[in-house]
Amino acid sequence: MLRSVEQSPVADRGEDPRLVGLGTAVSRLRRELAGYQAEFRDRAIAEDELAALAAMVAGGAPETARMCRSLLLIVGSIGSVSALRTPLMDVRNAVDLFGDSPGPPR
């Protein structure tokens, strides 16, 4: 991966790479969801829970149980939308890095 001279690796800046990864995955899924034109009944639930995950990342100390709850709600609301499968799995994998999660099976 290329980066500018001014950028330092995440570890050098003292950031938790798990938080950075989760933030990136959440941002991507939010963008993909916003760009997904078809309406579905539980879209608002997914958007709310993605906002909650983004807030946890911004706060710097997410609660694992709350992240898992958000993940389950997101999966339940958009899990059948095949166009969102990859970014959804990225969020799931990022949440898994915070410890044992009762998330959906792979």
Low-confidence region ranges: 1-11, 102-106
Radius of gyration: 14 Å
Structural class: mainly alpha
The helicity comes to 55-70%
Task: Tell how many strands the DSSP assignment holds.
Answer: 0
Number of helices: 4
Query: What average pLDDT do the residues reach?
Result: 85
β-strand percent reads under 5%
Give the end-to-end Cα distance, rounded to a whole number of Å. Answer: 28 Å
Would you write up a description of this structure?
The chain is mainly alpha-helical and 106 residues long. It is 59% helix and 0% strand. α1 (17-35) packs antiparallel against α2 (43-59) and α1 packs antiparallel against α4. The longest helix is centred in the first third of the chain and has 19 residues, at 17-35. It starts with 16 loop residues before the first helix and ends in a 10-residue tail after the last helix. The relative contact order is 0.18.
